[in-house]
Amino acid sequence: MKLISSIGFAVFWATLAGAAQAGVLKAPPAPPTGFLDHPQAMSADPARAPFNKAWESPRARDRVRGFNRVVIAPVNTAYVKATPQQRAEVEKLAAFMREQFQSEFAKGGKFRVVNQSGPRTLKLELALVQFQPTNVAGNVLSTGAGAVVPGARILGSQFTHGVIAFEAKLRNAETGELLAEYADRQKDKISLLSFRDYSADGHGRRAIQDWARQMEQLASTPSNHKVPGAMRVTLNPF
Fold it and tell me: 233: closest CA among 66, 50, 12, 4?
């Protein structure tokens, strides 16, 4: 009986992983905010960007090619609906987000991260537009249920997951010309065990790390390069 249960759970897990790989489990887009300039012109670009929606000016790729510096502006949090108790956490996430994007662009090697606009400089404007914390108490209960019923924790986590969304604008820092816009929304990753399930913003911070890496790749690679999306299912507990 245990063997049958184990096989069934393995099949269930493999199905989840396959669905995640196919993009079935990706969070739907968040409603556009006033931060974006071309929300109606944006669409999914699976051949290039891993985000819900993207827009590029007709000659964006040619114009980006000559840039070697980037300014990461302070993250806009004006569009996040948050309680007074959550507002402090939102501001911490915004500071973390800017630091992560600066770090990824610095590690990428193509761009030097600077603080002032100038020639051959891009400006990345970011907005954190949605943050729903992970329901830590609910995940504790799901974990307890999972000890009795295999898979109960994973199924239960779908009702306790948090959500985070961002929007971004890429400009010529010297002229102000808008080159591209992006928007994405992520839910907590699905896992057999994750310590992030017991932190209100742990999954949100992981999503920000994924976005920073993906954005650096978008800015650094040719237009025919597909930037891979982050896996929705993971075996990494951290």
Answer: 12
